UniProtKB/TrEMBL annotation, chain A:
GO terms for cellular component: plasma membrane. This is Putrescine transport system permease protein. Gene3D superfamilies: MetI-like. Pfam families: BPD_transp_1. Keywords: Cell membrane, Membrane, Transmembrane, Transmembrane helix, Transport. The chain crosses the membrane at residues 12-38, 89-109, 121-142, 149-167, 173-194, 215-240, 271-292. InterPro entries: MetI-like, MetI-like_sf. The lineage of its organism: Bacteria, Pseudomonadati, Pseudomonadota, Alphaproteobacteria, Hyphomicrobiales. It is found in: Cell membrane. GO terms for biological process: transmembrane transport. It is a multi-pass membrane protein. It comes from Bradyrhizobium macuxiense. Residues 86-292 form the ABC transmembrane type-1 domain. Its main location: membrane. Belongs to the binding-protein-dependent transport system permease family. CysTW subfamily.
Automatic annotation (TrEMBL), chain B:
It is a multi-pass membrane protein. GO terms for cellular component: plasma membrane. This is Putrescine transport system permease protein. GO terms for biological process: transmembrane transport. Keywords: Cell membrane, Membrane, Transmembrane, Transmembrane helix, Transport. The chain crosses the membrane at residues 21-44, 64-88, 100-128, 134-157, 178-198, 236-257. It holds the Pfam family BPD_transp_1. Belongs to the binding-protein-dependent transport system permease family. CysTW subfamily. PROSITE patterns: ABC_TM1. Residues 65-257 form the ABC transmembrane type-1 domain. Its main location: membrane. It comes from Bradyrhizobium macuxiense. InterPro entries: Bact_Polyamine_Transport, MetI-like, MetI-like_sf.
């Protein structure tokens, strides 16, 4: 038997504890979300009527299946509020991802062209804000954007505007907050593909008469598409479910789905509807998640 | 002439500088204003430590800060233990039944919206009739952050030269001894970096903690969040600056740790 195979057995044993932990605290909870999304709302503590009890055995379980209630999902489909907030989440996530790409690409491109010894420093500088508290970074923007904040003071002093502009509680503030928070997630995968690119390809394009601009669009950009895809999905997926940024920076006209879920749960105390919204949000995220997984796997195979 | 294609242009430099300024300027402004003597956040009234003094006399805030620090320390330690074991299983376990499910469970929390993770864990705790507070938040944070630890440690283990372990076993070590004597010392920097990442992520979280905590045991981010919803307060600037300072210390330690390990691969980069 090879050393690798002897090594593999205790390694698998090591995985048992984390395996059980993830089953108990990650997988099983989704079962509860599903279960409660199919129950009735009740004014009680906890505020729902359980549809079935696992303790009552198989017969009770079978009987309970007959009376599962899809009312909460029907409500999601019928009530405009939910459909609108789903649409808004998708629009906000798509728009932010596009802006992130437009801003992140030139930065990643600049990083990849730095002299080798500066690239590590630049990467560190991009990563550090990711470590800094995300809530604090949003709060920092509230400082700047508020009515008598720094931005309005600067604009007034420079006579660009004559009266303070309302920045907070607008969509522009929300987009700014999202772009600011997710920028490292866009830059890092882009930089990873751009920095691995073979420079001789560009030289060859130049030798064959391509202008730098042509070389960029015909060589660099197509080769960086895997990075573009990874960065876009890495931003798009969590932004769809984002709660804190829209809650602190956006206006209260249309809510994103994360906010709707929060509202149903904490304010309306309607746990079944909140759970149904969570299930629906999860279903919405399955296609991009599968796409992301496939992209990662293809890159791993290409790397071999 | 050939170098022209890969030269650093003025456009490259400008976009890089503008991007970094965009990332850092708001934080710098926040830190500067935390030393502002004036009650009005936007009027400069000279340098002062007044708001730090205020924070250290704010019982509720201090309690929340203490709660956050203990949750972060305990959950990061648990997450590092479990995450390292999971990384060993994935990187060295070869093929085993349930592997796809295992890696799926470990990778999906990385992008899962926090409202879903928070809600699902709360429903579990309610079903188990667990009293909500310190331990429920700690378990929730452990579950989320152990996935990040797994990614960091696993990439280090994959990059490691396996012939070292095999040599140790050829020389008569059993697998466990070979791991403890040869592999473990080599991945310690990644484990340290994983702990730091787990600690800062736990210290940062507001959504999952809001779902899983009980009445009377708010974490610092929950307190900050509810204050921020009411508007800007100079005391919050001071608290945020303290948190930033602490995270900066953590980053410096983590980057030293990953520098120690970078002799073999760049894998220790956070995330």
């Amino acid at each position: 038997m090879s050393a690798r195979r002897i090594f593999a057995r205790p390694a698998r044993l090591a995985a048992i504890a984390p395996y059980l932990w993830m089953v108990l605290f990650f997988l099983v909870p989704f079962g509860f979300v599903l279960k409660i999304s199919l129950s009735q709302t009740a004014i009680a503590q906890p505020p729902y009527t359980p549809v079935f009890d696992f303790a009552e055995g198989r017969a009770a379980l079978a009987a309970a299946f007959a009376q599962l209630s899809f009312d909460n999902f029907r409500l999601l489909l019928q009530d405009n509020l939910y459909i609108l907030s789903y649409l808004r989440s998708l629009v906000v996530a798509a728009t932010s991802t596009l802006i992130l790409l437009l801003i992140g690409y030139p930065i990643a491109y600049g990083m990849a062209r730095l002299p080798q010894r500066w690239q590590g420093v630049a990467m560190m500088l991009v990563i550090v804000p990711f470590w800094t508290s995300f809530l604090i970074r949003i709060y920092a923007w509230i400082n700047i954007l508020q009515h008598d904040g720094l931005l309005n003071q600067v604009l007034l002093t420079l006579h660009i505007v004559s009266a303070p502009v309302v920045w907070l509680s607008t969509d522009s503030a929300m987009y700014l907050g999202i772009v600011y928070s997710y920028l490292p997630f866009m830059i890092l995968p882009l930089y990873a593909t751009l920095s691995k690119m073979d420079a001789s390809l560009l030289e060859a394009a130049g030798d064959l008469g391509a202008s730098p601009r042509q070389a960029f669009w015909l060589v660099t950009f197509p080769l960086s598409l895997p990075g573009v895809g990874a960065g876009a999905l890495l931003c798009f997926i969590p932004i769809v479910g984002e709660f804190v940024i829209p809650d602190l920076l956006a206006g209260s006209n249309t809510l994103m789905i994360g906010q709707t879920l929060w509202l149903e749960f904490f304010t309306n105390k309607d746990w079944p509807v909140a759970s149904a919204a969570a299930v629906a949000l999860l279903l919405l995220l399955v296609p991009p998640l599968v796409l992301y997984d496939r992209l990662q796997r293809r890159q791993l195979e290409a790397g071999r | 002439m050939a170098r022209a294609a890969t030269r650093l242009t003025r456009f490259n430099m400008t976009s890089l500088a503008a991007g970094l300024a965009f990332l850092y300027l708001p934080i710098v402004i926040l830190v500067i204003y935390s030393f502002n003597a004036s009650r009005l956040v936007t009027v400069w009234g000279g340098w002062s430590l007044r708001w730090y003094h205020e924070f250290f006399n704010d019982r509720a805030m201090l309690d929340a800060a203490w709660m956050s620090l203990s949750v972060a320390a305990v959950s990061a330690t648990l997450a590092t233990l479990l995450g390292t074991l999971a990384a060993v299983g994935l990187a060295r376990g070869e093929r085993f039944r349930g592997r796809a499910l295992f890696s799926g469970m470990l990778y999906s929390p990385l992008v899962m919206p926090e409202v879903i993770s928070g809600l699902s864990l709360l429903l579990l705790f309610v079903a188990l009739n667990a009293e909500r507070g310190f331990w429920t938040v700690t378990i929730a944070h452990t579950t989320l952050t152990m996935c990040f630890v797994t990614v960091v440690v696993q990439s280090r283990l994959t990059a490691l030269d396996r012939s070292l372990e095999e040599a140790a076993m050829d020389l008569g070590c059993d697998p466990v001894r070979a791991f403890l004597m040869v592999t473990l010392p080599l991945i310690v920097p990644a484990i340290v970096a994983g702990w730091m990442l787990a600690f800062t992520l736990s210290l940062d979280d507001v959504v999952i903690a809001s779902f899983t905590t009980g009445p009377g045991s708010a974490t610092l981010p929950i307190r900050i969040y509810s204050e921020v919803r009411l508007g800007v307060k100079p005391e919050i600037n001071a608290i945020c600056t303290l948190v930033i300072a602490m995270i900066a210390v953590v980053i410096v330690i983590a980057s030293f740790a990953s520098k120690l390990s970078s002799s073999q691969a760049e894998s220790a980069a956070p995330l």
